[in-house]
Amino acid sequence: MDRSLGWQGNSVPEDRTEAGDDKEYVGFATLPNQVHRKSVKKGFDFTLMVAGESGLGKSTLVNSLFLTDLYRDRKLLGAEERIMQTVEITKHAVDIEEKGVRLRLTIVDTPGFGDAVNNTECWKPVAEYIDQQFEQYFRDESGLNRKNIQDNRVHCCLYFISPFGHGLRPLDVEFMKALHQRVNIVPILAKADTLTPPEVDHKKRKIREEIEHFGIKIYQFPDCDSDEDEDFKLQDQALKESIPFAVIGSNTVVEARGRRVRGRLYPWGIVEVENPGHCDFVKLRTMLVRTHMQDLKDVTRETHYENYRAQCIQSMTRLVVKERNRKDRSRN
C-alpha cells in the first residue's frame, strides 16, 4: 500500500527538486499553488455598474472592455421616450473564459439616469439597488446554508462624465456623494475624441479639483509595496495620474496604416481605441481587469460591505435592547 502524501496526475507540485534531500523541508510552500488551483476551479465573480446620462458610450465601452456583446437585445428609445423614462436597473450576465480561468461578469446598467427634465434624487434607485445586494448577501451569510453564496455585490461603478460641460454638473456631484460610501467609484471622462489633448488635460484637472473640493471619495489606488519592481511602480503611478480616465469606445474594426484596429474613422483621420496616445482605454482596462480587480473586490468586502453589516448589527442590537426594556417595564 502506497502511503506517500501527494497529488495525483499532473497536479503534483514541483517541490522535490527544489527541496532536494533537505530533511527540514515540510512542504507548506505549496500553499499558494493549492489556493490557486481551488480558486481557478471555483471561478471568479465580478459585478460592474455603469452610470451616467444616455449617449455617453457606456454600452460601447463595456463591450470594448470585455470583447463581448452584452446589449444585442437592447431597444433604443427616442428623445421623447427617454425624457419620460424613469431610472431603471438592468443586469446583463456573461461567462467569460480566458486561459482556463472562468469569470462570471455581471454588468449593471442604469438606463434613464439623468435623462429627465427633473432629475431630483434620480440616484435613489441606484443606491437602493446597491443596498439590496448588501442586504441579500448579509441574509445569505447569516443563514444556515452558507456554502454556495452568490456574490452580487457591486464591486465597481464607472461613472461617466459628459465632455461637453465645464467640469462636474450638480447631478454628478449629488450622485457621487450619495454613493461614495457604498461603492468604488471610478470617474470616466466620456467621448474623449470630441476634445483636443489640451482640453482633455484641462478637464481632468478641473474634475479632480472639484472632486476634492466637494469631498467626494472615489476609489483610491493602494500604495505599492516597497518590494515591487520599478516597472510596476511606474505603471501604477501612471494609472493614478490618469484619473478621470478619458476614454473612447468602439466595436468597429478599421484599417490604419495597413493594420486592422478597433477605432473610429473620421474625415480627418482615425482614432484608435487601444492607442495610449489617443485615449486612456488601455489604462482603464489594465486597472479594471489586470491589476486592481481583486483590490476592488477586497475594498467592497472589507470596507463598504462591512460598514453596511455593522449598521445592520447595530440596528438589530438596538431593537433587541428596546424589546427587552419594554418587557422589563411591563413586568414591573
UniProtKB/TrEMBL annotation:
Pfam families listed in its UniProt record: Septin (PF00735)
Xref: Gene3D superfamilies: P-loop containing nucleotide triphosphate hydrolases
One MF annotation (Gene Ontology) recorded for this entry: GTP binding
Site residues, Important for dimerization: 164
Coiled-coil region(s): none
Sequence ranges assigned to domain Septin-type G in this UniProt record: 42-315
A Gene Ontology biological process term: cell division
Top-level taxon: Eukaryota
The keyword Ribosomal protein is assigned to this record: no
Localization of this protein: Cytoplasm
Keyword vocabulary terms for this entry: Cell cycle, Cell division, Cytoplasm, GTP-binding, Nucleotide-binding
Cellular component annotations (GO), alphabetically ordered: cytoplasm
Recorded family membership: Belongs to the TRAFAC class TrmE-Era-EngA-EngB-Septin-like GTPase superfamily. Septin GTPase family.
PANTHER family, per the entry: SEPTIN
Name of the featured protein: Septin 4
Organism in which the protein naturally occurs: Homo sapiens (Human)
